[in-house]
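To close the chapter, one final illustration. This time we ask the reader to focus less on the individual chains and more on the assembly as a whole: which components sit near each other, and how the overall shape emerges from the parts.
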Amino acid sequence: MKINEIKEGIKDGLPIALGYFSVSVAFGVSAVGAGVPWWGTSLISLTNLTSAGQKAGVDVMAVGGSVLLIVLTTLIINMRYFLMGVSISQKVEEKMPIWQRLLVAFGITDEIYAVSMGKKHDLTAPYMAGLIIPPIFGWTGGTVLGSVATNFMPQVLADAMGIALYGMFIAVIVPPSKENKKVLCAVIMAILLSVMFTYLPYISKLETGWAVIIITVVVSGIAATLFPVKEEADNE
Amino acid sequence: MSNTYVFLSIAAMALTTYFIRMLPMAIFRKKIENRWIKSFLYYVPYVVLSAMTFPAIFSSTGSVLGASVGCVVAIMLAYFNKGLLTVAIGAAAMAFLIQFAGM
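The assembled structure is written out below.
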């Protein structure tokens, strides 16, 4: 039983690992270019397991910014993980002990979150282990490779891989939007607001991390008020 | 860049990131019963992923056209309930073909 759960996790985790590998090669190349030594870039990926936050941190390091600034930048960009963590905390088995919860917490990334929430069943520790460990290897391995062997991937291929992780998000968003008008409504609201935050004067100056948090809280709040979810639909 | 600075910076990033992830997992250890909060959390994944994908996906590759076609392909594949990997590879392959063709 447990073996099957680990297997299921690995099956879901491998595509994420592959996507991470290609993206993190690019991160390694750019971080070494910014002046971080190869062991530093690899250590960042191993201990942070996040894309946007790492890139922002390296940007600050490149100009020799203060450690406080690094903390604040990381905090803002990664704050969305707090909201994701609340969702995950409700979807892991209620009996999961605290130490396993704290280990699962390390693996909350956009993609792992997306896959976890797409599952019909509660999340068990073996499943999460299978889901999280391959991406850690993919993310760190790609960074090491990109840091020591820059420019080994043709630019056109690296460019095309950039869309792969967004493809995974779309695979999570579209099926429920097709079947549930309320979800579709929330998705459309989120996209409209996100476009506004990207292009409108003044508010487009806001850090992307803040924009994502504001949109998430506002739109989910409106949707929860207008279209509360029926009790029996909780686990959908 | 001194080794001390690199170490301190990495420690700061790693601890901050883990703290954010760990906090909710440590706090919310019981199932939340409040219907509004449950509804809120039900919508969070779709909202956060939508906001992160659009419009960022259109500038995710070297060409806006390639990314746009890749995005349409992803939506179509997802509409027919294809798996995560199929959708991701489908989008990347289409974006690659368009860029490779120099469009």
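Residues 81 and 108 of chain A are 7 Å apart (CA to CA). Chain A has a mean pLDDT of 89. With these observations in hand, you are ready for the problems at the end of the chapter.
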